[in-house]
Design a protein that fits this description.
Blueprint lengths: L7 E6 L8 H13 L3 E6 L5 H8 L7 E5 L2 H12 L7 E4 L5 H18 L2
Parallel strand pairs: 1-2, 1-3, 3-4
Helix pairs in contact: 1-4, 2-3
C-alpha cells in the first residue's frame, strides 16, 4: 500500500500551552484522521524544540506542519521554517475552538480547495 504524502501532517504540540487542553487536541486529531489524513504528533519538551522540529521536518514525508501551542510555539515554528535551506511544508495555524468547529472549518476548507480544482 502506498501512502499519500499530500495527506500527511506533522502536528507540533506544546503540551503546556493553552491551559493544557490535551483533550481538545486529541479530538481535533481524531477529526483530521477521520478525513483520511495521517497525523504524526510530536510534543515539545523545552524551548527551541518546535524550531528544531520545523527546521528539520522531512517535506517528502509531511505536506503540512500544524501547530498546537501558544505564541511562543508558533514563533518558534515560523523561525524554524524560515531557517530551512530547502522547501518547507505548508503551515497550518488555527485558533482554539470546540472540536466540532474545527471539523466544520476543516470540511469547509476541503470543499473550497476541491472547487478550485488541482
Amino acid at each position: 500500500m502506498t501512502s499519500d504524502t499530500s495527506k500527511t501532517m506533522l502536528l507540533i504540540l506544546n503540551p503546556t500551552a493553552g491551559r493544557r487542553r490535551r483533550g481538545l487536541v486529541d479530538a481535533v486529531v481524531r477529526c483530521v484522521r477521520a478525513e483520511g489524513w495521517t497525523v504524526d504528533v510530536v510534543e515539545t519538551a523545552s524551548a527551541g524544540d518546535a524550531r528544531r522540529l520545523a527546521e528539520r521536518c522531512d517535506s517528502a514525508r509531511h505536506a503540512v506542519i500544524a501547530v498546537a501551542g501558544g505564541d511562543g510555539t508558533i514563533n518558534e515554528v515560523i523561525n524554524g521554517l524560515a531557517a530551512r535551506p530547502h522547501a518547507a511544508p505548508a503551515l497550518g495555524i488555527g485558533r482554539s475552538a470546540p472540536p466540532m468547529c474545527w471539523r466544520t472549518n476543516w470540511a469547509s476548507a476541503r470543499r473550497r480547495r476541491r472547487s478550485r480544482g488541482p
